[in-house]
Amino acid sequence: MADQTGVAPEQPQEQPVADTNYVVHSAETYVHEPADLWTSRLDNGAASSAFRLVQKDDRFVWVGGEGEGKPVAGPGESARFKEEGTTAEKMVGYLDKEGITGAVLFPSIAQRGYAQIIDTSALTDFFEPYNEWILDLAAKSPRLRGLPLMNVDDPSKAVEKMDQYAKRGAAGFLIPMACGEGRRYDMPQFEAIWSKANELKLPLMMMNSSNRHSASESADKRKEALSHSVAAKLSHRATSAFAVRRSITAIIYTGAIERYPDLRIGLVGFGASWAPFAMIRADEVYQVRPERTGPPTRVPPNVASEEIIKQTIHLREGADKAIKGDDRSGTTGLAPEGVGFYFKDGDQFSDHFRKGLFLTFNLRGKLSVRLRHYLGAEGLMWGHRYPSLSDEIPLVQERLNDSLERLSGDDKTRLVETNAAKIFKF
Known about the structure:
The chain is α/β, with parallel strands linked by helices. It contains 18 helices and twelve strands.
């Protein structure tokens, strides 16, 4: 029985399985891009402002812009102690050392292009070197999976790229966690991306620090960043899941998961313990105020007056236009009373979340593990984040046994092996 929050309590556990040597896949492992990845592969004009590593004191820092450049991210995110980038040989050696069978590879800095590169064509050019590099790297070992970064400013061009990358062995596609000022993932133009991912049966991934910014947004954010206190910066990081939560909620409310049964969307770098509350809250909004969920793809018979049906068709044809506000509350941008997306009878938002969404957790994610029953059997998988070859850090298998010691054999296998194997085809 669920408690008053709607979260099922921890289920009775079987006896823990013997400690050692089970198959482990990491669904979230970050690479270090080569120092000259962009400056060596872009033309001279673009190279002058491309991301590059420069040495500052005892470490290398990613910067962008002409001259000395400006740091692309915070010190902890943009710096590293060695200039060399990841190679397939180094990554496989690390996996061997840690007893990890396969790894899904994510950028450590390239996703910052969504916010830093404003011009659409320049963003496509910027992503191209990284995508070529990561697909080539992954192709060198069947234990590695590469994910290209997609520019979704023009979804029709994005789906062409998705086809090309799929033929080259892409294991999925990275898209921004928020698609930029004036655009929302519930808009009709993004239907092409959901449809293509469904057709290819490859997941779409949203990762932290991948907000798409417009010119005005970026200028404002850079100006604000100069005056941010430490507390403000920490609060921003502590609430990083808000933007992706809005995006995936909008996608589910449009009925995309229902229309595309093979569409899977992964959320990486946010943890997972926030998701049950997000599901509960979205269920409440759907139940109490269905008109807030936007233009429908179906209207229930009890409200399907001829006028509402006409209005619905009009909204679907021009869904990116302003929608009349809710007169009762004075809010704007909401669908008219009685018009909203209606799931199939008995379905809730949370059911669609479990069908189409999955999240990653790391060795500090014990709360996420406890909430696995609410997230669904296939909704959670382990990721190791940044590799370390230090002999001072205990091996992954040892730490996994400690972190997952209360789990039954079946639960442990799903979290560290079979969920990732199914999605990423290990």
